[in-house]
């Protein structure tokens, strides 16, 4: 371990150009100014707040917490891209990555990074909490069967939500839907991986 006294880790955390926070039991223990600014808060307003404050709904907060556990237990870390909520209720796409600090208890303590993706990807369509959840997993390239396993519903129900998303985004194919969700201009055929609904 590097014990160089000239390296001020608290200062690094404070000035990091990405959103950073340390959590305990899904409570924000401390957040850096980049994270607070991203969500429209002051750092002290986030201290000791539940992560729920950053989610569009309590359902998404609870379901994400459940989904994280087996992945963190297996890998020790977790990353996804999801729709989050600022203090002014604006919804935006955000890349979230975290690492547990207690091997056998993912939610005991963790370090998390947040990256605002709104410049490249806009939330342009009103979605339900379930649609937001499924949209985030579709963006990752997951199939309906994998999504169904991850969120505890039947593949048929996932397909139903996918069909509703396609209608809302006027997408003719699953690949085109993913292009819309990603905010890319051309819905070409180069995302055949995403188009696979099996």
Which keywords apply here?
Beta-Lactamase, disordered C terminus, 198 residues, Arc Repressor Mutant, subunit A, 2 domains, alpha+beta
How many discrete structural domains?
A: 2
Helix-strand string: HEEHHEHEEEHHHHH
- Second-tier CATH architecture of the largest domain: 2-Layer Sandwich
Main beta sheet, described?
Answer: 6 strands, antiparallel
How many helical stretches? 9
**Class computed from helices, strands and strand pairing:** alpha+beta
- CATH T-level topology of the largest domain: Beta-Lactamase
Mean pLDDT: 88
General form: globular
Low-confidence stretches: 187-198
Q: In which order are the strands of the major sheet placed?
A: 3-2-1-6-5-4
Which superfamily, in CATH terms, is the homologous superfamily of the largest domain? Answer: PAS domain
Distance between the termini: 47 Å
- Helix share of residues? 40-55%
Radius of gyration of CA atoms, rounded to a whole number: 18 Å
Question: How much beta, percentage-wise?
Answer: 15-25%
CATH top level class name of the largest domain: Alpha Beta
Total beta strand runs: 6
Describe the structure.
By secondary structure, the protein is of the alpha+beta class. It has two domains: 9-116, 2-Layer Sandwich (Beta-Lactamase), CATH 3.30.450; 129-195, Orthogonal Bundle (Arc Repressor Mutant, subunit A), CATH 1.10.10.10. It is 41% helix and 20% strand. The chain is built from nine helices and six strands, in the order αββααβαβββααααα. The protein has a six-stranded antiparallel β-sheet. β1 (19-24) and β2 (27-31) form a beta hairpin. α5 packs across α7 and α6 (144-151) crosses α7. The longest helix is centred in the middle third of the chain and has 18 residues, at 58-75. It is globular, with a radius of gyration of 18 Å. The chain starts with 8 loop residues before the first helix and ends with a helix. The relative contact order is 0.10. Mean pLDDT is 88; it is low at 187-198.
């Amino acid at each position: 371990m590097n014990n160089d006294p000239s390296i001020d880790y608290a200062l690094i955390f404070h000035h990091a150009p990405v959103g950073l926070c340390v959590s305990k039991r899904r409570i924000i223990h401390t957040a850096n100014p980049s994270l607070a600014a991203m969500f429209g808060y002051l750092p002290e307003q986030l201290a000791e707040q539940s992560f729920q404050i950053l989610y569009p709904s309590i359902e998404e907060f609870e379901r994400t917490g459940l989904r994280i556990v087996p992945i963190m237990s297996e890998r020790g870390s977790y990353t996804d891209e999801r729709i989050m909520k600022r203090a002014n209720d604006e919804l935006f796409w955000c890349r979230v990555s975290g690492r547990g600090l207690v091997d056998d208890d993912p939610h005991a303590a963790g370090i998390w990074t947040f990256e605002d993706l709104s410049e490249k990807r806009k939330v342009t369509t009103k979605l339900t909490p379930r649609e937001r959840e499924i949209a985030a997993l579709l963006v990752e390239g997951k199939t309906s069967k994998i999504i169904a396993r991850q969120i505890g519903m039947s593949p048929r129900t996932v397909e139903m939500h996918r069909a509703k998303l396609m209608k809302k985004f006027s997408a003719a194919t699953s690949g085109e839907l993913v292009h819309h969700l990603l905010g890319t201009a051309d819905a070409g055929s180069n995302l055949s991986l995403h188009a696979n609904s099996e």
